[in-house]
User: Fold this.
Amino acid sequence: MTDMNLLQSRIEGDSSGEDFSASVMSIEIGPAHPAMHGIVRFTTHLDGELIVGMDTEIGYLHRGFEKESENSKWIQVIPYTDRLNYVSPLLNNIGYSMAVEKLYGIEAPRRAEFTRVIMGEISRITDHLTCLGAAAMEIGAFTFFLWFIKAREYLWELVEEMTGARLTTNWTRFGGNSTDLPDGFLTELADRLAKLKDVMEECDKLLTRNKIFIDRVKDIGSFSKEDALSYGFTGPLLRACGIPYDVRRADSYSVYDELDFEIPVGSTGDCFDRFLVRMEEIRQSINIIEQAADKIPEGPFMTDERMLHYPDKKDVYGNIEGLIDHFKLVMEGHQPPAGEIYMPIEGGNGEIGFYLVSDGSGDPVRVRLRPPCFNFVAAMPAMTIGHYVADIVPIFGSVNMIGGELDR
Amino acid sequence: MEVLLDIIMIPTVLATIKIAVIILLFVMPLGTVLTLMERKWSAMIQDRVGPNRANIGKFTGHGALHLAADGLKSIFKEDTIPKGADSFLYLIAPFFGLIAGVATFAIIPVAGPIGDFTFQVTDVEPGLLFIFAITSLSVYGAVLAGMSSNSKFALLGGTRASAQMISYEVFMGLALMGIFMVYGTTRVSGIVDGQNEYWFGHLIPMWGVLTQPLGFVLFFTALIAETKRAPFDAPEGESEIVAGYFLEYSGMRWSAFMLAEYVALVGVASLITTLFFGGYHVPWLHLWDSAPQWLVTVLQIIKFSVFTLFFCWFQIQLRWTVPKFRFDQTMALGWKKLLPLSLVNIIVTAFVIIAFS
Assistant:
């Protein structure tokens, strides 16, 4: 074959000359695969065990959250948000409610805000516990996983006490929360946090300095600051890369500016850094909860502004304003003023942002969610190429993809 | 009666009986019970209850009935053959591991000989070399299963298994070289008797673990890697390649793989007991001159069983405590660390033997 022909064949993509394509094996990892918690498909191209290419396909859990929200009243979206990030549903509730409150231009009462901080941080802890536990389980530390799940159970019982449900919480409202702290909640909380600290300490001893574990996660899936920013990383993964961006500090919503906490930052952005950042964030969250529990003021847990909260039954039956409010809220729904806003909060995985458009009627025009793990999954090929097939497990585990949030 | 005894004492018949007794009364029951033991023990580690649901009326036997339930379930499950699989190889593959695992017990003595009668199927001259030969065969189980399943995950698992087992075999032999040098024989009965000698009068038995501490660690590691159990279970790699080489199997053939794993686990434990912990010899028992023969034999069987059980437990504990190695890390550990160490061990042992002889 002459050089001209060789060049021509290369232009046409014809495999001639040295052909490596036969040594590349494509393997479908997912959608149903033990390491793919949630459902996602990675078509992985392997040279031996080395990953040379990866195509990502998402959307297996698409439920039409955004479209469905447009066909609902504003308040009816809250239960849908439970199902977004289903390991920390309260944070989604809080994010959506705060976004609508921003549209209204109001703030929830201080007691409600402090309660939201407590419950939100509990949810962040459950999120991190699930992520770390599952990631560790997949590289063989099964005991670690079950101990963390045990700890998560302590917290979910608190969530259940507060909201009546473990997952389908549907807890926040516009301008407050649906329930106040139950009796004895704070003592129970302190008790549970003490137990959680014990578990954390135990698990720390079990895994953090384990040589096999460190070998499996160190320098795996490293990501530079620049790459992380260009992919739009947020949350623990961005902080593991060394950028101390945390919406709780950067945007200081709710009452976070009154609370003292630190933002753990990694350096290389590998799986070990992500593990350490999440472990430290659990400790910081415990710290935040303890401060918030100390500072929580007395007062109402729901705004008493008209056309925001459902009036009490005695008002509905007792006076005309109450009756009209109730009728209009039920029939027409909440009517935030026309406009559009973007409200980010720090979710378990990173920045959960709600972009809402209202035309002043009872139906949302647009409810858009910015899911943090969309960007992470987009970066999966960049993180995995050049590693071994077994490294998909810690990398994907540390990404903490939540199908409900990613596919919406 | 006389005739019957004569027939029994024909070596082939006797060996067959011994095989049947050892396999049916020791290996298989222990292998089966270990599946339950593993589940219960891991449950204890992890603050769970463990299996407790299978029942006959109110009787659950603390989960013991799960053994029967699992067995029944495996038998009645459909024995599937994937499309495009090489059905002959696919069907015979599960039994290589099982046979190799069981054959290990041929040379392991469970108690001291009484007259001509030995509690050992055969005491061949090559001894441990026989074990190396047999364990190599179990590679075929994994390789054939991985190759014939017509599944990429299984293929990856089979490749990993063959690479891992072949490399670990290399220094498994080297790790034992020290034992051969210290006791001067490859015959198993010779090694066991050698461990019945004592240092400082009757103070410390010359167990293999004391004469060859490094060899013990190396050999134990190699054996665990050879059985493909955690932390060396990259060939199974349940999280990335799902179940590795036996991914496509179902029913009884799948159970054969599982059983082979547990039989191998018992095999590892009994090998370690035999080679490094004095085998069946109860230490200091020889000081009791007037011990009746039957009592000595019973004590020896008990000692052997207790040590074997202990090392079974140890492997289970290990599995549920540490994370897994990645496949290339397993290989690196074998070739870059354990192999040089076993060579050093041989040289040091040689020097020590020369210096003290």
